[in-house]
Amino acid sequence: MDSNLNLSIVVAVSENGVIGVGGELPWNLKTDLKRFADLTKGHMVIVGRKTHEAILLRVGHHLKGRTTLVITRQKNYKGLASAVEIFHSWKDVLSSVKNRRDEVFVIGGSEVYNWALPFANTIYLTRVHTEFDGDAFFPPLDSDEWAEVSRQTHEADEKNSHPFSFITLKRRVVSRQFVNLEYARHEDQRAIMEGISQQGICPFCPENRVPGEILEPLRRGNYWTLVPNRWPYKFTSLHAMLIIERHIRFFDELKPEEVMELTELLGWARKTYGLTAYSLGLRCGDPHLTGGTVDHLHIHLVVASPEMDKPGYERVRFPMGPKLAPKTNNPGS
């Protein structure tokens, strides 16, 4: 998380994680709408295009008294007011709000919340105490990362269709590391990772990628980037990595559209490089336990060299699991 960001999330979530259905809120909570206005008035708000357009339909105008930063992939998208600014990536909008002392609020939708969660300091959560069918969801929160600091519970009444609680969560002050130096295989790799470790950032998140540290992509998708591995395994004819754009750690966190694009990229690689065989290497979770170096979901695409007559030839080995502690000859240790 970047210490120069004062980023907060405002969100209303049902008991089963729903935040919307068909672009609408599945509840009517006037008290929550007032709280939203009180929190965000006079501040910048970051919002995805679809959520921005849903707000325009619902209230008939942009959010007054706030500067709205809209993220969209549509290159020709125009804001309808001077208080609306358009950005085409999370990286760009993040750069624009760095070093601001006042709070900047992320207000949806689902994809933008996923982007924002690793960078937020505070979550203003309205927990709606009912389950709903929906098509937009808020990601589960890790209690090891977030601490509840306040809660106010409200019953349903003439202004509010369902019971709910206002919950404020603060990020726990922990030293989180996104890289694991113990599995660096090369001295220049270790030197680069030491610098990344001191910054406390994830080098695979798009906004942190540095040209040269991560090589020029072979192919970009909406959800994945395929790049050559700067430090390929020995005896490979191809060693690339598929890096997911959003910061997740486990394969089961992937959305259907992300899985679909992953298979499309593998098909592209097979056709482009004329592959008759390849192997995939995948680690999920704590890199100290998996043998990985970066705590961000990525998949190794490996093609072993068929030239077995090379001096010192060995099969390609994908290391998994923690390293053994060095043996000692001291029987008293």
Strand content: 15-25%
- The Cα radius of gyration reads 23 Å
SSE class? alpha/beta
Note the main sheet. Answer: 8 strands, mixed
Total helical segments: 7
| Total count of domains | 2
H/E element sequence: EEHEHEEHEHEEEEHEEEHEHE
Low-pLDDT residue intervals, each spanning 5 or more residues: none
Share of helix among residues? 10-25%
Shape: elongated
Distance between the termini: 39 Å
Question: What would you say the CATH architecture of the largest domain is?
Answer: 3-Layer(aba) Sandwich
Structure notes:
There is one protein chain. With 333 residues, this protein is of the alpha/beta class. It has two domains: 7-171, Dihydrofolate Reductase, subunit A; 181-304, HIT family, subunit A, CATH 3.30.428.10. Helices cover 21% and strands 24% of the residues. It has seven helices and 15 strands. It has helices spanning 30-40, 49-59, 90-97, 110-116, 187-199, 256-272, 287-290, and strands spanning 7-14, 18-20, 44-48, 67-71, 84-87, 104-106, 122-128, 136-137, 146-154, 164-171, 219-220, 224-228, 236-244, 279-282, 298-304. The protein has an eight-stranded mixed β-sheet, sandwiched between helices. Helix 2 (49-59) links the parallel strand 3 and strand 4. The chain is elongated and about 80 Å long. The protein starts with 6 loop residues before the first strand and ends in a 29-residue tail after the last strand. 26% of the residues are buried. The mean pLDDT is 90.
